[in-house]
Every structure is written in structure tokens, then in C-alpha cells.
Amino acid sequence: MERYGIIKELVLGILGLLSLRLSKRWRVILDSGQSKALDGLQSMNKFQSQALEESRITQKKFLDFADGEHKKLLTQQDQLYKLMTNWPRIQNLF
User: Which positions ≥6 away from 83 have C-beta within 8 Å?
Assistant: First the structure.
């Protein structure tokens, strides 16, 4: 019975060491996976920041273009209005 107890203690000790080693390996694997995941998130964050900046630049270009076109349209409207209000006088010249 005493030998059985010694063998049992040895087996439990070995299982404890194996469990500890496996736990450490899992921790390394998890840490490695978390590190890779964090790298991926940082890469995605950088990509999103660049895309957002490009979007802002493009949006500003569109707004500037639209503003320029709007100013041209107002100028043309003003010229047309002046022409229309002066049309009777212009007709009298001919």
C-alpha cells in the first residue's frame, strides 16, 4: 500500500508539472495570438485613419468644386437677369 501511495504521489506530481507546463505554453500561445491580433487591429486602425483622411480630402475637393460652380451659376443668373430687365431697351436700339 505504501508503494501505491508513493506511485500515486509521483503520478500526481508529474501531472501537476505537465499541467503547469501546458498552462505556460497556452499562455505563450495566447499572448502570441493576442499580440498578432493587436498588430492586426493597429494595422486596421492605420488603414481606417488613412481612408478617413483621403475621404475628407475628397469631400473638401467636391465641396470646393460645388462652391465654384454655384458661384458661376449665380453670376450667370445675375447676368441673365440684367439682360432680361434691359431687354426692352435693347430691342428699342434695333
Answer: 90
DSSP collapsed to 3 states, 48-76: HHHHHHHHHHHHHHHHHHHHHHHHHHHHH
DSSP 5-54: HHHHHHHHHHHHHHHHHHHHHHHHHHHHHHHHHHHHHHHHHHHHHHHHHH
Local structure of residue 64 (DSSP, 8 states): H
**Short-list 46, 50, 47, CA closest to 58:** 50
pTM (two decimals)? 0.53
CA 83 to chain centroid: 52
Q: Is the pLDDT of residue 43 over 80?
A: yes
CA distance 47 to 54: 11
* Cell numbers found for residue 73: 451659376
Average pLDDT (31-49) is 89
Cell reading at 52: 478617413
Q: What is the mean pLDDT of residues 9-15?
A: 85
